[in-house]
Amino acid sequence: MCDPLSKYNLAAAAYQTTHLDETPISVTSLRTSSLSKIEEFLLQGDRRQAFQYAMDQKLWAHAMIIASSIDKDAWKEVVNDFLHQELTFSDEQARVLATLSPASKKTWENLRVTYSFFSGQGAAAGERHYIASLLLLTFIQFKNSPLLPC
Question: What is the Cα–Cα distance from 131 to 50, expressed in whole angstroms?
């Protein structure tokens, strides 16, 4: 007799095996005090302050929901901060990226541009990310240049 749950257990085991070696890119903690502070600002009618606090705490989902009730500029601001914090490499990360094989050099550029377009930033989003990509590519090529001393 076939166990109907066995295929689900097999799928779960396969998922865990393929994701065990992944290191988190970003980790954010949600504290009750943060939610209380956001709630306090909202109960006072201060959406802008609640929005700013959520962004400062990197509580992106809360900040995006609040921003959507403020205006388009607040929405663009939170999306830009999110993209900068979550999908942009620091100088140190870029240096590590430069040492990896080409297949490992995932920069999330397509995701950043897509999210920027979704936030209403239009052609400027593509231009800004294109320039950033060129700078990263130049850094990687310079880092791997045979002309540099070891």
Answer: 33
Q: What is the pLDDT of residues 104-125, one digit of tens each?
A: 456 677 787 778 877 777 766 6
Higher pLDDT pick, 110 / 18: 110
Domain residue spans of the chain: 30-86, 89-150
| Alpha helical stretches, state H, the chain | 6-19, 32-43, 47-56, 60-67, 72-86, 91-99, 109-118, 122-143
Does pTM surpass 0.70?
no
111-115: long-range contacts (C-beta < 8 A, 24 or more apart)? 111/87, 112/83, 112/87, 112/88, 115/79, 115/82, 115/83, 115/87
> In sequence order, which residues have a C-beta less than 8 Å from that of residue 129 and are 6 or more positions away?
109, 112, 113, 116
CA distance 24 to 140: 23
CATH 1.20.58.940 for domain 30-86, yes or no, is yes
Cα dihedral sign, 115-116-119-123: negative
